Amino acid sequence: MSRRRHSDEGDAGSQPHKRRRTSEPIEIEDRLESLICRVGEKSTSSLESNLEGLAGVLEADLPNYKGKILRILCAVARLLPEKLTVYTTLVGLLNARNYNFGGEFVEAMIRQLKETLKSNLYSEALYLVRFLSDLVNCHVIAAPSMVAMFENFVSVTQEEDIPQVRSDWYVYAVLSSLPWVGKELYEKKDVEMDRLFNQIEGYLKRRQKTHVPMLQVWTAEKPHPQEEYLDCLWAQVQKLKKDRWQERHILRPYIAFDSVLCEALQHNLPPFTPPAHSDDAVYPMPHVVFRMFDYTDAPEGPVMPGSHSVERFVIEENLHCIIKSHWRERKTCAAQLLSYPGRNKIPLNYHIVEVIFGELFQLPSPPHIDVMYTALLIELCKLQPGSLPQVLAQATEMMYMRLDTMNTTCIDRLLNWFSHHLSNFQFRWSWDDWADCLTQDIEKPKPKFVKEVLEKCMRLSYHQRIVDIVPPSFSALIPANPVCSYKYEEETEIPLPGLAMATTVSNAIKNRASNEEILIVLKDVPNPNQDDDDDEGDGFNPLKIEVFLQTLLHLAAKSFSHSFSALAKFHEVLKNLTESDEGKLHILRVLYEFWRNHPQMISVLVDKLIRTQIVDCAAVANWIFSPEMAHDFTRFYVWEILHSTIRKMNKHVQKIQKELDEAKEKLEKQQNKKQRDSGDEEDMEKNSEDEEGQLEEQIERLQEKVESAQSEQKNLFLVIFQRFIMLLTEHLVRCETSGIDINTSWYKNCIERLQQIFLMHHVIIQQYVGTLENLLFTAELDHHILAVYQQFCALQL
Q1: What is 29-260's CATH number?
Q2: Topology of the domain comprising 306-477
Q3: CB–CB of 340/350 below 8 Å?
Q4: Class in CATH terms, 644-673+693-794
Q5: Under 8 Å CB-to-CB from 325, ≥6 apart: which residues?
Q6: What are the pLDDT digits (tens) for 352-389?
Q7: Taking a C-beta distance cutoff of 8 angstroms, is the pair 785, 754 a contact?
Q8: What's the pTM value of the predicted model, to 2 decimals?
Q9: Of 783, 774, 771, 779, whose CA–CA distance to 742 is shortest?
Q10: Where in the chain is the domain with CATH 1.25.40.180?
C-alpha cells in the first residue's frame, strides 16, 4: 500500500507546474489510507464508534475517491489479516449505505483472488477467501453463493493427475475459514455443508502422508503429538461443529451493528472456478503443527485452550498474521503481539513463545530470516521483563529435555538462537541445571548441544569469557582455545620432512618474495609420491602443499584479514599447487590440521578458497566425507561449511542463468526494433546486424557456461548423496553383522543431515530427481535410506 502511495506522489511530482492543483487530492488520499489502516488500533473511543465514523467519512468521499477507497480496502484485506473482522464490518457498513459500492468491492475482491492464485501468492489468497467468507456475517455476501464457492474449492480433490499439495491448499482454504463463518453457513445451508464435510473427510482419509516424518520437530508423540496441519485443523473444526459452532475468541465488531447490517441487500458471488493446474504452479508445502505447551505448563492465570480447540487455531493464526505483517520492525511487531485483543482471556506469553519457536523450527525453512526471531524475542523480553523471560527460560528447559528426539536441523536453529540470545544478556544461564549432560557420552544430544552452544558463544565473545561463565565442572565441554597448530614450529628428535624448506619459505615470504620466486623455492621440496606408480605423481606433491600452506597460514595467523590478504597475495602459487583433484583435497586437509581448534577460521577460509577458485565445491564435499574428518563429522561447523558451499554453487548457476536470460531478452528487443525500423537506411541495418552477431555469440558462450555450471551443480549433489549412502550403508551392515541396534547418536545425526540436505535445497534437487533415482536412490538401496528420499519426493506430490 505504501508503495502505491509513493508512486502516486512520484507521478504528481513529475509535473511541477500542476503541483498546486494536485496536492490537495493527494493529501486527501493519504489521509484516507491512514484512517483505514489505523482503524482498530489503540484509541480513546470504542472500536464501534470509530468504525461508524470512518464509514461516514468514506461514504462522503465515495463520489470523488471511490477507486482509491476500493484499492485500499482490497489491499488491507490481503495484507492486514489480523484485523480481518474490523475491515469486514467496515465494508458491511459501507454496503448498507451504498449497495452499488458493496457490489463493486465484491467484484474487485474476486478479481484480486484470481490474480493472487495465478501468481502463486497462496497465503494472500487464503486471507482473501477468509475475508470473503466473513462478509457473509456482515450481510454483504449471500450464504448460498459462499457455499457454492466452497463446493468448487473442494471439487479440486476430484481432479486427476494433480499434485496432492494443490488439493490440500483448497481444502485448507475452506476449513480455515469455517471458524469465522461455519455457524452462519450451517444455519442457512446445513444439507450442503454436511455433503461438503463428507467430501473433505473422504479426501483426508485417502491422502498420503509419507512426508510427515521429514517435517516433524520431534520424533516422539509425547508429551504433545506432532500432527500434520490438515489433520489437526480437521479435528479442530470437527470439535467446533460438535460444540454447535460456539467459539469465544474471534473479535466480531459487526454484532454491534446487526440491526443496521441485517437490513442491507446482499450480493451473490459470481461463479468461481479455481484456475486449472499448471506445471509452473508452486503450491505451499505441507507442514506439521508445532506444539510445546499445554494447559499444565501455564501454572496460573487463564487456561491455555486445548490442541484440538478451534480457539488454539484462531489465536495462533492471528499471531502468525501479526508477525507476517510487522516482522521487518521488531519493536512494532513485539508491541503488536503483546497488545493482542483478548489477551486477558489467554496465557498470551505462552502462545507467543510457542508461535515464535514454531516459525523458527518450521521445515524446510522458517517464513522469515532466523535472526529476526532472536531480535523479536529480545524485544519481547524488554517489554515484559517481569514475565516473558521466565516463559522463555521454561521453553528452553523443555527443549533441552527433549533434545534426544529433536530434529537435527531444529537443534541447529535452537543453538544459533540460544547462543545469540545469551550474548545479549551477558551469557547468564543456570548451567548447573544442565549438569546431567556431564555424565553422558559426548556424542549424545545434550552434551553435544551444550558444547556447540558454548562454541557458538565463543564466536560472539572470546575464549576466556566462556571459561569464566560456565562452572568448572563443565570444563570438558568448553571449546578448545582457538590457536593454530603449526607443525614446523620447533625441531623434534626425528626431523620433520620439509622442516628446513619451511624455514626457507618463511624467510622468502618475510622478504616479500613474488609468486614466481616462491614457486622456484618450492621446486626443491622432495615429492614423497615420486616412487609410486601413480601417473599423476609428478603433479601432486603433498609435502609441497604442507610446507607452503602451513608456513603461509602461520605468518598470517593474527586475524581473518591477515589470512585473507595472504591467500590473495599468493593466489598464483596456491592455484599451481592445486591443479589436480588430490591437490585440492590436500589443501583442505592442511587447512584443517592447522586450524583444527578454530572452527570459525576453517569456515571462513574454506569460503575464501571457494570464492577465489583455489578449490571447487565438489572437493569441499569430498573432504567433509573423508576419513580424516570422521572425528568432526557430527559437529555443527562442518554442516555450516557444506550448506554454504551448496548455496555458493546454486548462486553461481543462478547468476549465469540470469546473464543468459538478459542477453536473450536484449537480442529479442533488438530483433523487434529491427522489424519496426526495417525501412531505415542500410548503414543502420549493418550496425544492427553486427550487434546481433555479437549478442548471438555472447548467448552461445553463456549457454555453454550455464550447461557447464549445471553439470557441476548436479555432480556436487551426486557426490554428497553418494557419500551419504556409502557411510550409512557401512553403518547398517556393521550393525547387522554385529547384531546391535542401528539407532545410535551418530546414525540419527547422519540420517537427519541427509534429510536436511534434501529439505534446505529442495527446489534445486527437484531438477535432478530423475538422475538421482536412476543412479543412487534405486529400489535395491536399504529401506532406511530410501525412506528419506521417498519423504522428500512426497513433499510436492
Answers
A1: 1.25.40.180
A2: 1.25.40
A3: no
A4: mainly alpha
A5: 79, 80, 81, 82, 336
A6: 999 999 999 999 999 999 999 999 999 999 999 999 99
A7: yes
A8: 0.90
A9: 783
A10: 29-260, 306-477, 644-673+693-794
